[in-house]
Amino acid sequence: MDIVGPYLxxxxxxxxxxxxxxxxxxxxxxxxxxxxxxxxxxxxxxATEMYDSVAKVALLALPMFVLAGExxxxxxxxxRLIAFARLxxxxxxxxxxxxxxxxxxxxxxxxxxxxxxxASIGTILIPAMKRERYGxxxxxxxxxxxxxxxxIIPPSTVMIILGAHxxxxxxxxxxxxxxxxxxxxxxxxxxxxxxxxxxxYGEVHRWPAPSExxxxxARALPVLTVPVFLIGGIVGGVFTPTEAxxxxxxxxxxxxxxxxxxxxxxxxxxxxxTVRITASALVIVSVAFVFSRILTFHRVPQExxxxxxxxxxxxxxxxxxxxxxxxIVGTFMDALAxxxxxxPLLLPVMVDGLGMHPIQFxxxxxxxLLLGLLTPPLGLALFMxxxxxxxxxxxxxxxxxPFLLAQIAVLLAIATIPAITLALPRxxxxx
Length: 431
Description:
By secondary structure, the protein is mostly helical.
């Protein structure tokens, strides 16, 4: 730490404080360390490390799932999922808030993207919630909170990157994320119900007629089968998680043909957006990997473990401390960069030190860092929903607190109850 502190961490946080993009902060801090700390590493070795960090077979699934999500968004199939969500939960007090959460849970299996959920569902449901007399800040808080489920319920692009860099089974992570994602959705619905009942938000809608229920379900069924098709294929050994990405694209293109939505212009636009999203993610991954390797080479994980054990040897205390670290770090930095950096740092602490299963650790790490997107006052998700709801970020930050507390409770349950993440993978023989 005598070298890492002044030559790596200090430049990084200094650049971060003056609002330099995270990827530039990581790259410049790593360059400062390599040139000024006295460490002699050939530039070619650094370039090779950066290339090797993204030249992984498992990461081939990343552009495939991104393309599948892009195509489904452009085929305008989101409205079918929202109608189905309204059928399931629209009749409960706070109906549209529940529809918002349920739509994110359903849409997670289609897009696997947090910001895809925010853009697609938020622009539709936030105005609808305002029309039914929901508070603007409340509507924004529900949307931001539920959008995190998009990276937890499979398929998830975040899980692909996490699994590739921590050498975890991506199929195991996919299956392990199902139950935590559902628990977070249910926890958010409980909070939404209490807040709606307490403040008199929304209208109570009637239960739809059987004929309408059948019609809505039939329209949504082709889209709802996407996650079932993918997870079933992976669990059944029909294809690997990487091959599942190609299968998702093929299935999505078939839907576009059936519904007559596919066109050369639409496909070209989806491909261009896929290239941009994938490239931006992989640039962050490669630069963060160099930053992480420097920390690992200088034994920072071992020093962190020794420091924590000096504070307390009680597992619960260490879990609470680590959870607090994830929430704070997740507030200031991109979630992908955090996972590449924090994963190798915390793996020895949580797996070797506390006996947490690697799959359980992967889900806990991912959920904890994603919650940083909601942590007031700097959470990125808050800034994204604020203009959609036309409400100041500070009001959204206050409104999101009850939802954030519910999600933190689920995060602590993930860390302390292994069955939440391991029961399904064990049942399917994946671990």
